[in-house]
Amino acid sequence: MLESILNSGNGNLTLTIGNLLICSLISVVLGVVIAACYMHCSEKYSKSFVVTLVILPVLVQAVITMVNGNLGTGVAIVGAFSLVRFRSIPGNAKEIGSVFFTMAVGLATGMGYIGYAAILTVMVSAVMIILAKTGFGVKKSTDKQLKITIPENLNYTDLFDDIFKKYLCEYKLLKAKTTNLGSMFELTYSIRLADEQKEKEMIDEIRVRNGNLTVLCGQVSALSEEL
Question: What is the pTM of this model?
Answer without folding.
Answer: 0.54
